[in-house]
Amino acid sequence: MTTHHLKTWPVYFDAVARGEKTFEGRRDDRGFQNGDIVVLQRTYEDSPWSVEYPKRELTFRIGFVLHGGSFGIADGWCVFSLLPVEGACARRTGGHSR
After folding, report:
1. How many other C-beta atoms are found inside a 10 Å radius of the C-beta of residue 66?
2. How far apart (Å, rounded) are the C-alpha atoms in residues 40 and 22?
3. How many CB atoms lie within 10 A of CB 6?
């Protein structure tokens, strides 16, 4: 089992945090597998490539993985379900402000 830390744009992070988005679509460059852990890290609104400080993170277990090349998913991409991890919740870490 591997843990993947993934920068996530605010609009998508917030939808996951509200429970509206229960899946993730990503370039399949990390070998995502059922049972892996993903830690979504919210990025800044005005700088989507920089993680917010203090960090806002959500932790999930990967469920089903649909790999590219079928069902309209491009080769080299995948879509996977986000399943709850017992004891995990949204958290803020660090004390820096921007």
Report:
1. 16
2. 12
3. 15
CA angle 77–79–84, rounded 5-degree value: 140
* Cα 87–chain centre separation: 17
Give pTM, 2 decimals. Answer: 0.83
Residues 62-82 have pLDDT tens digits of 999 999 999 999 999 999 999
Task: Enumerate the H helices of the chain as residue ranges.
Answer: 10-17
Q: What is the rounded distance in angstroms from the CA atom of residue 75 to the CA atom of residue 98?
A: 38
pLDDT for the residue 93: 53
pLDDT digits (tens, 9 = 90+) for 50-63: 887 778 999 999 99
Phi, psi of 2 (to 5 degrees): -115, 145
**The total number of residues written for the chain in this structure:** 98
